[in-house]
C-alpha cells in the first residue's frame, strides 16, 4: 500500500481515495492517514460466515469513496464472484508467485519444495477464479541454495514494491500491456 501511495505523485494518472482494511489496527491504516489518505475498516470477523454481509459493508465503503480502480495488497479474503463481477476490469491484485504457478497460500515454500530456480510476484486483474485473472506484470528473483520461505519472501517483497506501482501507472493510463521485471 505504501509503495503504491508513494508512487502516485506528480504526473501519475491515479490518486488514492481510500485505504480500506478488513483488519482493525492494520499498520497500513496509520501510514495512509499520515499521508492524508482517508481510511476505513470493515472487519470480517463480526460477520462470521456471512460473506454477503461482509461484502455489502465493503461495497458501501467503496461506493462512498468512488474509486475507479481497486488495488488489493495484503487483502487475505477470497471475494465472491458477485463482488468481483461488480468491479470487473477495475480490480488488481499482487500475488507472491509467478502465476499461474502457486495460486493461493504458501507460495514461497511451494516454490522451494518444487526446486524452482526462480520465484517472484505477479500483478493480475482480479476475476472470480482465485489468482486466475489476466497477468499485467511479473518480477523475478532467484531461489538461492539454503533459502527458506522467509528469506525468499524477504527478497520477493522489494520486487513487489517495484512492480505494483509500475503496473498501476500503466493500467490507470489505459495500458494493459504486461510489465516484466528481471
UniProtKB/TrEMBL annotation:
| EC code | 2.1.2.2
Query: How would you classify this enzyme at the top EC level?
Result: transferase
The GO terms this record gives for MF are: phosphoribosylglycinamide formyltransferase activity
User: Which part of the chain is the Formyl transferase N-terminal domain?
Assistant: 11-168
UniProt organism field: Rhodovulum imhoffii
* Stated name of the protein: Phosphoribosylglycinamide formyltransferase
Please give the catalytic activity noted in the UniProt record.
N(1)-(5-phospho-beta-D-ribosyl)glycinamide + (6R)-10-formyltetrahydrofolate = N(2)-formyl-N(1)-(5-phospho-beta-D-ribosyl)glycinamide + (6S)-5,6,7,8-tetrahydrofolate + H(+)
Q: Do you know which HAMAP family this protein is assigned to?
A: PurN
Q: Which residues form the active site?
A: 95 (proton donor)
This protein's superkingdom?
Bacteria
Keyword list, A-Z: Purine biosynthesis, Transferase
